[in-house]
Amino acid sequence: MSRAFVKDGEQEFEEMPDRLISEHPNLVTPEGLAQIEAEVARLNVEFATAQTARDRTAIAVAARELRYWKARQLSAEVVTPPQDSAHIHFGSIVTIERGDGRRQTFRIVGEDEANPLKGTIPYVAPLARALVGKGVGDVVRVGDDQVEVLTVA
Asked: Which of the four pLDDT bands, split at 50, 70 and 90, describes residue 83?
């Protein structure tokens, strides 16, 4: 049963809707699965702490996050990157050169483990999709940009 507002003593708060789950397969690297498992463990502690404190807002937040991360844990499909470095695939570390001369290195990973600021992009990103199957020296167009594959590991 869903309730829009819940009264907690004199304080009211709105229940949080579930986080959206991607329609794409939940591909993860072995490291990505470990990150998901660590998040579930952390949230279990957070949920228990909120229950002990009888903090209904914290309980609702932790419960929402636990539902999301447990669903992601159950649907995770671990992909062990192949040793083939001739072609780009899930798990590859790729260095590209953009049309303006900028070079970028990143790893293609699952959606939940992607963090462009840390050099990882999701396999469903347009750049990653354009590069999968390509090799060193290949040039692909992504939007208005053209990129050349410099290295694959």
From this structure: confident
Establish how many alpha carbons lie within 13 A of residue 123's alpha carbon, considering only the half-sphere containing its beta carbon: 21
**Nearest Cα to Cα of residue 152 among 83, 102, 67, 100:** 83
Rounded CA gap, 28 and 23, in Å? 14
Give the closest residue to 108 by CA, choosing from 97, 122, 129.
Answer: 122
Q: Rounded to two decimals, what is the model's pTM?
A: 0.85
User: pLDDT tens for residues 24-74?
Assistant: 999 999 999 999 999 999 999 999 999 999 999 999 999 999 999 999 999
Q: Can you tell me the mean pLDDT for 112-116?
A: 96
3 state SS of 103: strand
Contacts of 90 (CB under 8 A, 6+ apart): 27, 29, 79, 81, 108, 109, 123, 132
H helical segments located in 19-138: 30-53, 56-75, 126-131
Bridge partners of 98, per DSSP, are: 147
3-class secondary structure, 130: helix
